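Re: [ENG-882] Designed sequences occasionally contain unexpected residues at chain ends

Forwarding the minimal case from QA. Structure tokens:
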């Protein structure tokens, strides 16, 4: 599936769009981490929960659970809130 990478994480991928595979969000993130080591930890915490500043959208629907099943061939958008002062 095609994965849209936010600019804050493009230092890992070098691209705004990459390909990944997996039956669930957790599987897709594991595949991304195999290709781009360290990227998963920026999105999933030590308790295997989605970090508060990260949102995942699959084919327009927000995903709240890493165990959520994903259809093959869809589009995953990773959105990251930015803050600062």
């Amino acid at each position: 599936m095609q994965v849209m990478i936010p600019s804050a994480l493009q230092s890992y991928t070098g691209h705004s769009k990459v390909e990944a595979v997996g039956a669930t969000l957790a599987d897709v993130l594991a595949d991304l981490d195999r290709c781009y080591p360290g990227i998963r930890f920026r999105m999933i915490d030590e308790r295997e929960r989605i970090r508060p500043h990260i949102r995942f959208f699959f084919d327009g629907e927000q995903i709240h659970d890493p165990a959520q099943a994903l259809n093959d061939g869809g589009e995953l958008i990773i959105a990251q809130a930015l803050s600062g002062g």
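QA comment: On inspection the terminal residues look reasonable. The chain has one domain: 2-80. Proposing we downgrade this to a documentation issue.
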